[in-house]
Amino acid sequence: MARGPAALSDAELLALLLRTGIQGKGVLQMAHELLQIVHPDTDGFGGIAGLLNATADDLKRVKGLGPAKRAEIIAVLELARRAMAQRLQERPAFSDPGAVKHYLQLHLSAKPHEVFAVLFLDAQNRLLAMEELFRGSLTQTSVYPREVVLRALHHQAAAVVLAHNHPSGSVEPSRADEALTQTLKAALALVDVRVLDHIIVAAGQACSMAEKGLV
């Protein structure tokens, strides 16, 4: 309390959350093990990023981490998601592009399958809602422009941010990603809804197609 939380290491901060270890394993050792978690569907990101992307099943692999402690860690992750959502709801999303990427990473990067999601924004680019609309490989499962348009009209959105995850770990846009972006951009333009970006996320990283000039 005297020196502030920034003075503590990642493991020490996590140890404060865990509070106690188990016989033969101190709380700091348990914290270090948690920071070494690697999700089996990623390319090996550990540390805080790996922990934030961990699922409840991933946490079960740490010996001594019971249901109560697992629930606390999952709750912290959910609080982080909600804090970011509130920030995006209260001010224009693109006043802080990094917050948009972090928000999407927390929601999508840990999923073992490909998910296509849309952020629906108002005229001031504030977040109205986020919806996961399609699942499965985007090369095999169609993303229906009509459904995206209908959801945009439902939310009375003025703009959208498209997003999907790459479970493989690479965030480089593919030709299919570029083609899908242009198809959705044309469909949404018919109802006067702008596509501001298409963000691809994986564990520990995110790519903005707008920043690459692809939107």
Could you tell me the CATH topology label of the largest domain: Cytidine Deaminase, domain 2
Largest sheet at a glance?
5 strands, mixed
Give a count of the beta strands, DSSP E runs of length 2 or more.
Answer: 5
The quaternary structure here is single chain
What distance separates the N and C termini?
A: 47 Å
CATH architecture of the largest domain: 3-Layer(aba) Sandwich
Judging from the principal axes of the Cα atoms, what is the shape? elongated
The helix-strand sequence is HHHHHHEEHEHEE
Radius of gyration, in Å, reads: 19 Å
Provide a short characterization of the protein structure.
This protein is 41% helix and 17% strand. The protein has 215 residues and is an alpha+beta fold.
Features of this protein?
alpha+beta, five-stranded mixed beta sheet, elongated, 17% strand, Cytidine Deaminase, domain 2, 2 domains, 215 residues
Overview of this protein structure:
With 215 residues, the chain is of the alpha+beta class. It has two domains: 74 residues, no CATH class; 112 residues, Cytidine Deaminase, domain 2 (3-Layer(aba) Sandwich). The chain has eight helices and five strands. The N and C termini lie far apart (47 Å). About 3% of the residues have low confidence. Belongs to the UPF0758 family. Keywords: Hydrolase, Metal-binding, Metalloprotease, Protease, Zinc.
Question: How would the blueprint of this fold be written?
Answer:
Layout: H1 10-18, H2 27-34, H3 47-52, H4 56-59, H5 67-90, H6 97-108, E1 115-121, E2 127-135, H7 145-154, E3 159-165, H8 175-189, E4 194-202, E5 205-208
Helix pairs in contact: 1-2, 5-6, 7-8
